[in-house]
């Protein structure tokens, strides 16, 4: 940039949606955010609506970003001043480096001088607000009023990048944040459903190709591997996404299409062990979904067939970790069905077998956090049996073991949100164990730890149906606990929040029987001694 004279900028016609102000120490973060904003498309249903003084446009372009280093000059150059005068908003990347930059401070001050009525958005990318907000950003105006900037916190323990970017979109367009989040989530759901049906089409295509090349053994093997790779995707990544949005109907369709591949095989006995193990996992997934829909007989049939397969595979290779893991899931699901049907003795036998298999996995692979996680699950299942039997001492011991194991798992994989959700669940069981001993205050501490974890997960992924379900259940239990402790107003407020969330879940997927059952429970008034 060239050094220019100190002169007031002439405010020109509006040309830029925003002026991106940042320290050049934050060049990389600025470049990523600038690219995202210039490529972002507003959800179609929001385009054209009236927000503030203008209609919402499809794009947020153009965003002015100064790419050159300023020289050792005493003022902003002409291009920057002109761009500031022609910008609808000012977007400031806040960090300790930005706070120390006199140019960032000068750009904020000039924008406020030129446009006292236009928004300034603070995007916190590093450090705490007190160490990162430039002085001009929080300075009082000529009337002595301190103007609070619109804030988007990119840090992982706060808004996180996804929500922070959507907050910036809300600030630039004037559209309420909740509408942007809702429409953005709907757009993502449509994409997931589109991916689902593409995947189903590919599975059918692979199956057809296998029929046509059945006589060529080597080609058939190649096609089998491709088809099962797709099925593996459907069992893992795709299933996780669909569970996150709470769509049992689509999950059921995916499972049936995957199982149809194996039904088309001329002889299941000729399939290799990993194929049979994958088929067993499909059966377990189908059983789980049937159970959620309330079709218990069909779920049991799926679980029993999976058990038959996994037990046969394990007998052939008793020290194979993959087969130990697969059979552990079979033991769990049959035990879970017994537990739900109040057959605690039968359930305990299954859960003890599950724990023994998990202990063997840990012995074989002591550094594998997934196997430690299975052990934590197994201990937690035995904890639930102890809770059902109302044995205070044994309950506290088994629930504490489950909590300690899951805390160890989190230390092995600290950034895994699924493990954080599991840890929240263990705090809930510990709370129930403490209530059984009559220590409601200690139980409340565990419930508050559970609540803190779930709130953090929902901040990162606010539309995740699984997290929302866990938080709804947590507030149901905490409201009962608070009511018994005499904190009636807080208990009623939590119960009302939980009712609203379960209504949202049921609206998403009316086929989910579990959610409808909890909706009925939450409709009942609070009473003393409820668990």
In spatial order, strands of the major sheet run 4-1-5-6-7
- Helicity, in percent? 55-70%
Poorly predicted parts:
1-10, 68-73, 241-246, 264-268
Computed structural class: mainly alpha
User: Which percent band covers the strand fraction?
Assistant: under 5%
Q: Which of globular, elongated, flat, extended, rod-shaped describes the shape?
A: globular
- The Rg value, from CA coordinates, equals 28 Å
Give the distance, in angstroms, between the N- and C-terminal Cα atoms.
Answer: 68 Å
**Overall pLDDT, averaged?**
81
Number of strands: 7
Count of individual helical segments: 20
Order of helices and strands: EHEEEHEHHEHEHHHHHHHHHHHHHHH
Q: Oligomeric form of this entry? A: single chain
Sheet with most strands: 5 strands, parallel
Index terms:
531 residues; mainly alpha; 5-stranded parallel sheet; two-stranded antiparallel sheet; globular; disordered N terminus
């Amino acid at each position: 940039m060239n050094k220019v004279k100190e002169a007031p900028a002439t405010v020109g016609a509006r040309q830029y949606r925003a002026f991106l102000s940042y320290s050049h120490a934050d060049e990389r973060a600025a470049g990523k955010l600038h690219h995202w904003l210039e490529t972002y498309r507003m959800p179609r249903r929001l385009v054209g609506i009236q927000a503030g003084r203008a209609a919402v446009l499809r794009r947020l372009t153009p965003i002015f970003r100064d790419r050159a280093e300023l020289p050792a000059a005493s003022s902003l150059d002409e291009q920057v001043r002109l761009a500031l005068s022609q910008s609808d908003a000012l977007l400031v990347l806040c960090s300790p480096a930005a706070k120390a930059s006199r140019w960032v401070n000068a750009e904020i001050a000039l924008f406020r001088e030129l446009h006292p009525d236009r928004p300034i958005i603070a995007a916190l990318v590093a450090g705490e607000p007190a160490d990162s907000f430039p002085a001009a950003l929080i300075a009082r105006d000529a009337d002595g009023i301190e103007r609070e900037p619109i804030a988007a916190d990119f840090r992982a323990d706060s808004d996180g990048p996804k929500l922070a970017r959507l907050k910036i979109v809300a600030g630039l367009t004037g559209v309420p944040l909740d509408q942007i989040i809702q429409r953005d989530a709907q757009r993502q759901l449509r994409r997931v459903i589109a991916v689902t049906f593409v995947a189903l089409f590919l599975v059918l295509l692979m199956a057809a190709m296998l029929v046509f090349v059945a006589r060529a053994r080597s080609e058939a093997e190649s096609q089998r591997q491709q088809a099962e790779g797709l099925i593996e995707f459907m069992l893992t990544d795709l299933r996780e996404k669909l569970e996150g949005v709470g769509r049992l109907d689509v999950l059921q369709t995916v499972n049936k299409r995957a199982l149809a591949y194996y039904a088309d095989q001329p002889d299941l006995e000729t399939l290799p062990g990993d194929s049979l193990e994958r088929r067993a996992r499909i059966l377990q997934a189908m059983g789980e979904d049937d159970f959620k829909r309330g079709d218990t007989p069909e779920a049991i049939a799926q679980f029993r067939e999976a058990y038959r397969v996994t037990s046969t595979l394990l007998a052939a290779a008793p020290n194979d970790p993959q087969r130990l893991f697969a059979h552990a899931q079979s033991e769990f699901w049959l035990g879970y069905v017994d537990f739900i049907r109040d057959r605690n003795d039968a359930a305990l036998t299954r859960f003890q077998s599950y724990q023994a298999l998990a202990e063997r996995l840990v012995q074989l692979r002591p550094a594998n956090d997934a196997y430690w996680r299975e052990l934590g699950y197994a201990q937690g299942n035995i904890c639930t049996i102890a809770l059902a039997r109302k044995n205070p001492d044994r309950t506290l011991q088994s629930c504490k073991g489950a909590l300690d194991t899951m805390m160890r798992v989190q230390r092995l994989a600290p950034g895994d949100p699924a493990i954080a959700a599991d840890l929240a669940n263990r705090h809930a069981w510990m709370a129930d164990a403490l209530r059984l001993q009559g220590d409601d205050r200690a139980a409340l501490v565990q419930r508050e730890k559970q609540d803190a974890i779930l709130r953090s997960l929902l901040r990162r992924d606010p539309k995740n149906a699984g997290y929302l379900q866990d938080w709804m259940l947590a507030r149901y239990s905490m409201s009962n606990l608070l009511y018994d402790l005499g904190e009636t107003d807080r208990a009623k407020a939590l119960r009302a929040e939980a009712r609203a969330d379960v209504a949202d879940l049921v609206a998403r997927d009316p086929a989910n029987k579990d959610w409808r059952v909890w909706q009925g429970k939450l409709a009942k008034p609070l009473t003393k001694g409820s668990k």
